[in-house]
Structures are given as structure tokens and as C-alpha cells.
Design a protein that fits this description.
The structure is a homodimer. By secondary structure, chain A is an alpha/beta fold. Chain A has two domains: 136 residues, Aspartate Aminotransferase, domain 1 (Alpha-Beta Complex), CATH 3.90.1150.10; 241 residues, 3-Layer(aba) Sandwich (Aspartate Aminotransferase, domain 2). In chain A, 41% of the residues lie in helices and 13% in strands. Chain A is built from 14 helices and 13 strands. Chain A has a seven-stranded mixed β-sheet with strand order 2-8-7-6-5-3-4, with helices on both faces. In chain A, helix 6 links the parallel strand 3 and strand 4. In chain A, helix 5 packs across helix 6. The longest helix of chain A has 28 residues.
């Protein structure tokens, strides 16, 4: 303790914040403050269109949650979640090969809490994570306080060796369905190889699946946990895959209800961690989530939601083609919420471009925030779910203006 | 990575759980599993009586939260919490000396999340906490993953020196109103001394106040944050006190809505931490909380709640006097939810007594769980808010039976 040099007792020097607080990314802060810019077209987040919220039915579910289940809704609930909700989630992800029970299910206060809890139970300070690269920003945020090191897995790189990739990690992390940020679908052969490597090396494998139902073209692929169960089909699940989901993209993020499906020993460990994080998830929101699943509402709204988002994906890709095809390359994603665009010119730095973009009234997520080192500066993630086609087109027009300003600025400087 | 010795790929050895997972307390697990015992009288928790929940009005608030504020209730909200709720909390704790704004307020997903976030922003691995002793179990749970060391502060010990007590700690922690577990009210002189020491040593001072409104006898005392503000009255608050509250005891724990009031720099740090914990608190439950505060419901129900709990405190103390005065000493608490009983015989170990108590159909929280070292074995925390007088009396009768069995068992062995 350094004695205070201050003349005022009130402003004495305080002990520092924890060390990890100094490691956060300036771009993230810029990005978070962008919301205050008037007229901004914000393609930076992963926000659903509020028009899809089934407000009337959810309002009635909320009333009934409290009126008909006051003990569950208003009291302290079990740390693991309400039993009927755990049962409903177990049923939803069960198959002949993968018979799940509530012992396989933890309710989480959002998918983000799931990531935090996984870090809590698996990561020692400085531990190694083998993570699909580029990596979801929120996962980096959740794990940063434990100062992990990252082994970046580029799953579609030539010669990718899953067993070498996973060996020695405290866990592996992947978003197989429409990866955040790239929107890519991990193919079946890679899925099988990842699962086999997790079994062989004995590495926990986190399968983060918030976008699984937002599938626009082509066939769905089996979940990693389903492939893992095929090693001992029909037996109670005890394998290494930790499957994570959420209602945030399927129905409404404001419920903050997600889940983890895993081996019972993992659920027990996560329960102990959740006890010290928030004791239990709100019974009000759990009851609303259960009603949304049990009444079929979640399934009912998917076709309209998929149709809406598919048309917006197409609109964003068309706008990119119109305004930015000289500067960027991109793939049309078969699902999810994002298009990942890479600058053709490696000298175009998307961190440096961001202030020009904000000045032009458009926000995106630069690739640096999806890299634990911040070094990846060539890409950007563009969200297409929140804005209607005309705004997406106007956004890409503004982005083209920003690119011109940024390039012009560099030539002048 | 040790190569798997297993004959089956499916059961390969996995990397270990994080180290702290091995440090949890077996008594806590026993205690958590007690809920399954039929007919058990459970005085182990800190549960409100569900009869006090104003179910009808909260059901209507829940419906209106979604129907009238669908964007806020169902979408992603600001990490810090909804602005009108932050404003309402700022108003509630403001005074002439302590003018608060929303910049001083973070909404948390329960008081427990507040403790977790404080650990996240202030504790490095192995850091020192100066904590009021005995210490709230949930705070130990929240901070255990960072493997802190504890300096135990016995605030009413003769010769207690607050400045020495706080120096060098990453933060100090106290529950001045009806401390969990002891139910004690920290007196005004000690409050002033703690605050002065925090200012002089430059130590963050966490004031955890879930029970402040559950006050049964005598005068209320000023909050630590109010005393801290008197160092620079009327100025925007920038002092070292981090004040925590919750609606769990005042209205309903199932909302999982709490708050932290502190200097803006601390709120910013906690916001960054919350971003990686759950992104934001549910807009549904925040809107219900706001309605409960703004309509005056929270204030309206306090008199009946205080009267009910006061009578139960009296009933528990009377039952202790009837059945256990030969074995235990206790003080009648002036507020809160608990009576703290200490064995007269230092050889009576309340960890060893617990299995006998469960066998007799009564559960309490043994003192070991309120001590980071687990060494404190002479006390027990008894909750009086959940059960009616006749159950409290029957509970103490069962506890006397358990004491006799435990003592008898020791003599026989």
C-alpha cells in the first residue's frame, strides 16, 4: 500500500482495479458508444428486429407466470433452473442416440452467462483455450478476466489437424452453425473430426449454438453433441461436448434465458459456479420461456423470422455488390445474422476505417475485436437482421464513402 | 496433457476442472441437498415468506412491462440497466449531502451478481479482502474462484483499528445493517471509523445492504455511503464506498434485480465486467422492478412485512429460550432475517451437529460456512422469516433432540 500523496483524504489513492481491466480493447469502447450517434445505421451488433417479438402472447405469458406460479416466479428457485423448463430443454435436444434428462441441463441467465460459467469451471488463470478463429467477441469478453491464452483454430485451413489443435487445452470452443463473426457453417467432416479429437484427447468441447434455427439455405447438419453421443448411442450422455443455446435469437433477448446441455458431472460443476454468480435465473423469465416452448410459440414464429432475415441477408449482399465490390470480398452465409467482409487490399485497416464509418453514419464490428490479440485488421462483421433493405443499402453506400475518405486521408497524410 | 490410459476413447481422461473447484465446502453441499428431506423445517436459508409476495399487482406489472414497453422488455438493453430504473434508484438513495445521478448506478441481476462483479473488477488471483467476520456465505462463494485471502474483521472486538484493518486490502466488505449471519447492527461510531479508514487508506469499501428495510426496533443509522459523502457534501459522489442493494428481501427474490451505487469510475468498471457476465439484466424484470418502486408498492408492503417478521423473530427467540437455553447463547437481533446462536460449550461442533439435526428434521446454517477457512465451528445461523411461530417452536424442539443425540453419540463413541 503506497501512502496517499493527496492533500485531501477524500481523494486518497485507491488500490488498483484488477489487472485484466487494463487489457480491454479501445475499439470495443468506441463501438459501444456508437449508439448515441443520431441517424446512425448500426450493423455492429447482433440484434434481432423487435418487430418479430410476439409481444401480445409474451405479455400474457408474463402475467400468467406470476399469477399462476407465484412461488416459482417470485421466490428463489433451484440453482439449476426450474425442473419443467429443464425437462422441456432435455426433450428438445434428445434423440434416439442422445437420450437427455434434466440432469443434463442447466438453465443460464443468457448465453453470455453460459460462457462466463464455463470459464469459471474450466479456466485457471492463464489457461489455454483452443478457439475457432475468428472468435466471438462475447466469448473473449467472458474469458478475459482469467487472462487466458488462445490457440486460434482456422477450421477450414488446409492441413488442419483437430487432434493437435485440441491437445493440452483447458477446453475447445466452436460455433459450428453460422459462426460469429464469419457466418460460416462448419462442414460435416470437420464436425466429426472435432468430436473425435475431443474424445481422443480428452478435451471439453464447447459447442455454442445461438443461431442454429436461423438457417436460410441447404440442409442442417448434426450438432457436435449428437455426433459425440454416437460413440455410445442410447446411453446417458457423459461425453465431452458442452452444448449451449439461448432464446435470444429465436424469440427475445430480453428474457435472458439460455441453457447448457452436457454430461451430468459438468452440469454439477456449472451449478456450483452459478451459485456464486446469480444464485438462480429469474423465475418470471424462466416461466415465460417455458410457456413459449410448451405452447409451440417458439416453433410457430421461426418460418416468418427465417423468411425475413433471409431477405435481409440477400439485401445486404446486393448492397455490398452495388457499393463495395471493388474493396471487399465476402461469402453469402447460409444462416445466422452476419456477413463477414474482407478487404481486398491488405493495407485497408478496418480499425482505422471505423472512425470514418461512424462519421459517415454507419457502424460495423471490426475484425480486431474477434481476435484475442487484436491483430486481425482486415475484416468486418456486418449484421443484416435489424435493418430493412433500404437502410442496408444506404449503409453500404455510406461505408463506400467512408472507405474513400479513409483511403484519401491516408494518401494525404 | 497426460495420454489417456482408458481402453475406451469415449472415457478418455479430461483436463481437470479449474483449481478453485476443489476448494468448496462439503457442508454447503449437505446443506443444499437438505431441501429434499420430507417434513424438514428449514431454517438454513434466507428465504422470505412467499405469502408476502404481492402476486396480483406484480402479475399486472409483468403483463404491462411486455405489452407497454416491448422494446425495453424484450430487446437487449443497456449494460448499465434501463435509464428510468437507474434514475429511480439514484433518487431513492440521494440526500442533500449525497446527490446521485444515473452515472452512480448499475442495475445488477441480483445482489449476488453485484458481489461477483465486484470480485471481477477488484480482485486479482490471491488478492486480500478485509471482510467483516463472520462473513456472508454468498460473498465467499462469489469470490472463491479468485482464490482470495481474507483478513477477518471483528468490528466489535476491543481495540479494533479500522485503519490497520483496511490497509493493503483490494477491498473491504461489511454488512452494517443486521449482518448476515449475525444479525448485528454496526454502531454509528464504528461506521464513521470504517468510512474514515477507507478515505485515509484509499481502500474501496463494499457496503452490502440487503436487509436495510427489515428493521424491527430502535433507530436506523446512516449508510456508510451517506457518511462518506459528508467528506464533500453536495458534490457528485466520487468516494470509496460501493453500496449494494436488492429487491429480493423487500419484494421478491424471483425478480433477480439488485443495484450498485458508487463513484462513476467504479460503475464504469463494473459495467465492463457485467458485459462479460450477462450483457444486461432482463428488461422484463427491470420494468417490473421499476413499476414496484414508482407505484409505491415497495414502500406500501414494508409495514406488514416488518410486523410479520418481527413477530417471528420474537417467536424464534422464545423457542430458543424454551428448548435450548442450556446449550446456546444468542442476541435478539434488531433487524434482518437471522438469529446467531453460539454454543456455550466450545466442544459442541455445529458441523458435527448438522447430520443429527437433519435426522431430527431441522436444518440450520453452521458457522463454518461463514468463515473462509471453515474453522469457526461453534455457531449457527437460524432464519426466522419463512416459518410460522409453531414451526419455529417445533424446529427448536427438534434441535434440542439433535443436540442430545449428538452429545449422547459423542459419549458413547
Amino acid at each position: 500500500m503506497v501512502p496517499s500523496p493527496s492533500p485531501s483524504a477524500r481523494t486518497a489513492t485507491r488500490p488498483a482495479f484488477a489487472r485484466w481491466m487494463g487489457t480491454t480493447n479501445q475499439v470495443t469502447r468506441t463501438f459501444l458508444s456508437a449508439g448515441a450517434i443520431p441517424g446512425l445505421i448500426n450493423l455492429g451488433g447482433g440484434l434481432p428486429d423487435p418487430k418479430i417479438f410476439p409481444t401480445g402472447r409474451l405479455a400474457e405469458f408474463a402475467r400468467r407466470a406470476v399469477a399462476e406460479h407465484p412461488g416459482e416466479a417470485l421466490g428463489y428457485g433451484p440453482i439449476e433452473g426450474l425442473a419443467p423448463l429443464r425437462d422441456a430443454i432435455a426433450r428438445r435436444f434428445s434423440s434416439a442416440a442422445l437420450p437427455l434428462t434434466r440432469a443434463n441441463v442447466l438453465v443460464t441467465t443468457s448465453g453470455m452467462q453460459g460462457l462466463d460459467l464455463i470459464g469459471k469451471v474450466l479456466l485457471d488463470e492463464g489457461g489455454l483455450i483452443a478457439g475457432q478463429f475468428p472468435t466471438y467477441l462475447g466469448a473473449l469478453d467472458a474469458w478475459r478476466p482469467r487472462a487466458p491464452s488462445f490457440r486460434n483454430l482456422v477450421l477450414d485451413a488446409p492441413g488442419f489437424d483437430p487432434q493437435e489443435a485440441l491437445a493440452g487445452a483447458q477446453f475447445a470452443y466452436a460455433v459450428p452453425n453460422f459462426s460469429n463473426p464469419t457466418g460460416r457453417l462448419v462442414d460435416l467432416a470437420t464436425r466429426r473430426a472435432l468430436v473425435a479429437a475431443a474424445h481422443r484427447t480428452g478435451t471439453w468441447l464447447v459447442e455454442d449454438d445461438p443461431y442454429g434455427t436461423l438457417h436460410y439455405d441447404g440442409a442442417t447438419l448434426p450438432r457436435l453433441i449428437e455426433l459425440s453421443a454416437q460413440a455410445a448411442p442410447g446411453e446417458p450422455y457423459a461425453g465431452p461436448v458442452i452444448y449451449m443455446g439461448t432464446l435470444s435469437k429465436e424469440i427475445a433477448p430480453g428474457l435472458r434465458v439460455g441453457w447448457i446441455v452436457a454430461a451430468p458431472e459438468m452440469i454439477e460443476a456449472l451449478t456450483l459456479a452459478k451459485q456464486g454468480s446469480d444464485l438462480c435465473t429469474s423465475g418470471v423469465t424462466q416461466r415465460v420461456a417455458l410457456a413459449a416452448i410448451e405452447t409451440g410459440l417458439v416453433d410457430e414464429i421461426q418460418p416468418a423470422l427465417v423468411a425475413l432475415y433471409r431477405s435481409r441477408r440477400d439485401a445486404l449482399c446486393a448492397a455490398l455488390a452495388t457499393h463495395l465490390c471493388d474493396w471487399f470480398d465476402w461469402e453469402v452465409p447460409v444462416g445466422g445474422m452476419f456477413v463477414w467482409a474482407l478487404a481486398r487490399d491488405p493495407a485497408l485497416d478496418t480499425d482505422a476505417l471505423l472512425p470514418h464509418a461512424l462519421a459517415a453514419g454507419i457502424c460495423y464490428s471490426p475484425s480486431s475485436v474477434f481476435d484475442a490479440t487484436g491483430a486481425n485488421r482486415r475484416g468486418m462483421r456486418l449484421n443484416f437482421t435489424l435493418n430493412p433493405p433500404e437502410r442496408l443499402d444506404e449503409g453500404m453506400r455510406r461505408l463506400a464513402t467512408a472507405v474513400a475518405a479513409c483511403r484519401g486521408g491516408r494518401q494525404v497524410a
